[in-house]
Every structure is written in structure tokens, then in C-alpha cells.
Design brief:
It is built from four helices and no strands. By secondary structure, the protein is mostly helical. About 25% of the residues are buried.
Length: about 110
């Protein structure tokens, strides 16, 4: 169950990153509300995950999911560049996430 909490925390990390962009510096009400709610919920889920998972592993995977998701969201939603080099480094983060998951029991 801890891995499910961690996955949800990572998805919420992506959600608040998107919300941060859409809030325009917290000047738009509803995107700001969504962003703050996602920020709170991501920490709640992460706290549940680290009850049983190693802190370093959970934190690295959580931030990795958020980083990869935010980068992909930027490409898909906000027309940010998708150069081969950028995609290579995103893939490297994914490889790190998978490696951490495979090397951690629980």
C-alpha cells in the first residue's frame, strides 16, 4: 500500500506543478486553490508512504515522478521544447525511479 501512496503523491506533485503554471503566480483564484490543495495532499500521501518505505527512496521517487511528469506536462500542455537531449535526461530520471523501486523491498 505504501507504493500506492507514493504513486498518488507523485501524481499530486505533477498536479500542483501544472497548477502553479496555471495560477499565474497565484493571481488566478481557482488554479491557486487547486495548486494549494494538491500541495497539501501530496505531503499527506508522502507521509503515509514513508511510514514503511525508506525515506531516501520514497523522497527520490516522489520528486522523480514530479520532475518527469512536470517536464512532460510542459511539453504537452505548454509547448515547451522536446529536444532529444531533454528527452534523454527525462528517460534517465525514469531509469533512476525504476532502479530505486527494484532495489527497495516493501
Amino acid at each position: 500500500m505504501a507504493w500506492v501512496w507514493l504513486l498518488v503523491a507523485g501524481l499530486l506533485e505533477i498536479a500542483w506543478a501544472i497548477g502553479l503554471k496555471l495560477s499565474h503566480g497565484f493571481t488566478r483564484f481557482w488554479p491557486s486553490v487547486w495548486t494549494v490543495a494538491a500541495m497539501i495532499l501530496t505531503y499527506v500521501c508522502l507521509a503515509q508512504a514513508v511510514k514503511t518505505l525508506p525515506l531516501g527512496t520514497a523522497y527520490a521517487i516522489w520528486t522523480g515522478i514530479g520532475a518527469v511528469g512536470a517536464a512532460i506536462a510542459g511539453i504537452v500542455l505548454f509547448d515547451e521544447p522536446a529536444s532529444a537531449l531533454r528527452l534523454l535526461w527525462i528517460a534517465a530520471i525514469v531509469a533512476g525511479i525504476v532502479g530505486l523501486r527494484l532495489s527497495t523491498s516493501g
